[in-house]
Please model this.
Amino acid sequence: MATPQERPGRTARVRATPEPGARPEAPKRRRSAPRAPATPAVQAVQAAQATTPPATAADTETGPSAAAAAALAAEPPQVLADYYRQMVLVRVFEQRAAEMYTRAKIGGYCHLNLGEEATVVGLMAALERRDYLFTTYREHGYALCRGIDPGRVMAELFGKATGVSGGWGGSMHLFDAGARLLGGYGIVGGQIPPATGAALAIAYRSDPGEDAEAVMCLMGDGTTNIGAFHESLNLAAIWSLPIVYVVVNNGLGMGTTVQAASGEPELSRRGASYRIPGVRVDGDDVIAVRDAARQALHSARAERQPVLVEAVSSRLRGHSVVDPARYRSAEDTERARRLDPVPTLRSHLIQAGVVDLAAVTAIEAEVEDVVAAAVAFADESPPPAVADLFAHAYATPVPNTPHRLPADAVVVSEP
Amino acid sequence: MTEISYRQALHDTLRAEMLRDESVFLLGEEIGIFEGSYKITAGLLQEFGPRRVRDTPISEEGFVGAAVGAAMLGLRPVVELMTINFSLLAIDQIVNHAAKIHAMFGGQASVPMVIRTPGGGGQQLGATHSQNIEVYYAHIPGLKVVAPSTPADAKGLLTASIRDDDPVLVVENLALYNTKGDVPDGDHVTEIGTAAVTKEGTDLTVVAYSRAAAIALDVARRLEDEHISVEVVDLRSLRPLDRETICASVRKTTRAVVIEDDWLSYGIGAEIAATIQEGAFYHLDAPVRRVAAAEVPLPYAKSLEQAALPHAGDLVTVIHETLDATGFTP
Model:
């Protein structure tokens, strides 16, 4: 358990989760999820908040808590091994992406999920195939865990025709209609109103139920300060939309701390104005994240109760590949390394006898091969043809659509 | 043909498209119980219910963006923005999202949504409620922007917009809502991206859209009495822009004047003038002139407001100046 000194206050730079009513002895896993409308939603918020323990992995700097360990022990070994495989896939993919960026194979901006692997895998484990996902520009891992071929994801980063978005989107704009990944979005929070509208379309066309579709809308901690966040949560509340908003709180919006940017730094409470229940979960605990997201999705699809989930995790590196993160203290960086969910789960799986070292090593070797193949596929793929520059000008062709290149005449003048 | 108002044409078109296609629904501020600020949606809530006529809170960015997402899943939302001035609150969703999603995601998604909104001054609504900022959107690839000037085109272009798989901004005009005209009965679709020659002529071309196109037509008819033959090109579609129809007309008449309700600098007229100089330069007998709003925030006081807006008299003056400059005699 963290000492009070380790539980950062308003001056902390990362991962601060001030909990006025926090009980240090509380188990770190969330105890209950809101079950509105069984109880009024506003009560659910309060109940969730009152029972939400400090979800930071600061509690677990020496490994999983007893409760988390028990939860892990209750999972089938094959499930845990698969989660570990996916976390390693995200880790290795992102490391190779960073390398390819420095080698100029990848252009533009490139934001990595390093340090957020447990959150990524937990959320995607909860999301059903029939559900829709809207994400941010830090979304490579979500695409991978949605089952999209890593080669097509890497090819998009490389700007190749074989990329998931045909080379039109790049790192920030991954899209796969088949996987119902309806976009990474480069504008902070730009995805929130469209995600809310996707939930509106579901409600327009179908009734709530266990088998109904739902939407998951991801965002970062800084996003909870934009107007579109608040407008969208209000719409979701008054229209009873099947949507789960997930704030991935890594403590930093670029270099600005949550405490510096947010009047209510406990971000799971920010739905309270709209009576949207909030739940905070340890983003370094893949099982806790999965269970919280599952519960929230259940409320969304079966009860049309939107939910706000806050997953507290950490960013192992800078905002983007090129950010050295000099604004972070050595202690913060060291702490993020100590809490790194990938080696934490690895050592737990081995210590608990879920899988043996040979099996873990085999998973890692397999993932290395998969990512190497993805890089090779991306590298060998052709770039989009210039002849296709106007292929997506409009979905419905109409006369006089401009198809001119920079040096072309606007009008062919008759002599 | 039936003679109805521009307002009635919009209303009837919304109703017809909702009856035709279950995926068409309306959303916007005060469109249901209040029946719309300008009563375009009168009676539709009663007929179709709140599922298909959805009142929104005052959250332009939120509900325009929600329409984007609903459209991505295959619905056909028709958003009413109370005035085009309020579109600025939603501009991120219009420009960065609605306009980008089809191309940016490699053609995997489309955004078949419509935003209907009135612009225009002359109602003493003051500086923030009287703008003609359609050029902001006409500048953006990925959007389609139409601006009907007649009840018939209001029907034809709104129908086309609703059936189109791209985001379309339908620019209406406060001053046109009560104007009347013949509207074709039954299905009537006006092709987006095409201008119309609303009056043929031989001496000079006037290019205009929306309210100004109605003014131009009126002026052209009156100048017949002076034996001046003016051709009127009604753009109808600001993006895509039918440059060929404009240039073909000017090649014939050899003179051109643009009249527009928006401000002159960087306005729609600037694009038209540039198009004409490239597409009809060797046919021109005179410089292309622009009649546009005075470049001030539109004042409230009627005297000032009317002085700032372009009128038929301004167009007549500039037409005469252009003809005189070339030694034209009727």
User: Anything to note?
Assistant: The first helix of chain A runs from residue 41 to 51. Chain A touches chain B through 57 residues (CB under 8 Å). Strands of chain A lie at 132-135, 181-184, 215-220, 243-249, 252-253, 256-257, 278-282, 307-312.
